[in-house]
Amino acid sequence: MSGVHRDRVKRRRPSFQRAMQLACAALFNGYAAGFGRGRIFTGPTKMVCVPVLNCYSCPGALGACPIGALQTALGARHHVPFYVLGTLMLFGAALGRAVCGLMCPFGLVQDLLHKIPVPKRKVPGRIDRPARYVKYGVLALLVVGLPALLGAGGGVADPLFCKYLCPAGTLEGGIPLLLANPSLRQAAGLLFGWKTLVLIAVLALSAAVHRPFCKYLCPLGAFYALFNRFSFYQLRLDGDKCVRCGQCERACPMDVEVTKNIRSPECIRCGRCKAVCPTGAISSGFATGPEAAAAGEP
To answer: By CB distance 3.0 to 4.6 Å, which of 99, 187, 252, 292 could disulfide with 287?
Structure first.
């Protein structure tokens, strides 16, 4: 096989990231009959949290969304979400934000939309840097703080992030259910209109700006970012091999300064920097023993 032909085959072959994204989307939303019937799956696996944003109301969802489950537990009086937090901490400690880069269906949607041939935009640093902290505010306020505060007063608090902001829930759950159920379409009101506007804004922005929801709004990404420096799965940069060509940073969808901080909280470990590195200076894998202890060092 000629070198040119091998290159063409390689370009047609899906990347490891894309294969993982597609496999996880199929796994987490494997109840295909639900889309035709317009009904939510209620089997025993629905009690199990998946590690990514994956709306409980999606007709195909086989598991529960951890953010929705966390809000529900916090918003119910006398309920402590040990199981949900344990699940999130387990995946965070093992993978960090690799969960976002390799497993999240809504991340896949944003990646595919960014392939649309429209002019691409880079958010100016004076806006981008402070905006990155918004997702931590969403996590602290909408997901944890307000549900816990309202639930402590008695009754059950609304899952505020899911109800008012989450575009993944609108895309995966709200729209398929409304399409399949005329009665729900008649009942849809201003709240669904607002959620639809949020979804349209995120999807439209995704064509020009890579992964805007992951960068600025996703509370699950904010949670996993807390583990990025210490997780077992890491990207590593060999300074002796690096020629400072900048290809890794130009390829990064999250605009990480790879050569300065490869363990940045913003890194989703999608592997694109590794794929384009001309000298093989970037490697990835699970750190163990002394290597794991050194992973948290600056």
So the answer is: 292
CB distance 286 to 253 below 8 Å? no
Q: Does domain 234-289 have CATH number 3.30.420.40?
A: no
The residue type at 121: R
Q: What is the reported pLDDT for 78?
A: 61
Cα separation, 60 vs 35, whole angstroms = 6
Measured CA to CA, the distance from residue 5 to residue 112 in angstroms comes to 25
Contact 84, 148 (CB under 8 A): no
List all residues 6 or more positions away from 74 whose beta carbon is below 8 Å from its beta carbon. Answer: 81, 143, 144, 147, 148, 151, 157
| Residue 269: per-residue pLDDT | 96
Q: Is 246 helix (H, G, I), strand (E, B) or coil?
A: coil
What angle in degrees, to the nearest 10, is found between the helix axes of 66-75 and 82-95?
150
Question: Which residues in the chain land under pLDDT 50?
Answer: 1-11, 290, 292-298
Predicted pLDDT at 291 = 53
| Nearest one of 208, 225, 223 to 261, comparing CA atoms | 225
Counts of helices then strands in the chain (DSSP H, E): 20, 2
Tokens coding 294 = 């050194």
The helix (H) or strand (E) run that includes residue 295 is: none
**What is the structure's pLDDT at 14?**
65
Q: How far apart, in whole angstroms, are the C-alpha atoms of residue 298 and residue 255? A: 19
Identity of residue 59: P
| Exposed / middle / buried, residue 278 (Cβ in 10 Å: 0-12, 13-18, 19+) | exposed
Return contacts of 253-258, CB within 8 angstroms, 24+ apart: 253/111, 253/114, 253/210, 253/211, 254/210, 254/211, 254/214, 254/215, 255/122, 255/128, 255/210, 258/282
Kindly compute the dihedral angle of the four CA atoms of residues 42, 108, 213, 102, in this order, to the nearest 10 degrees: 90
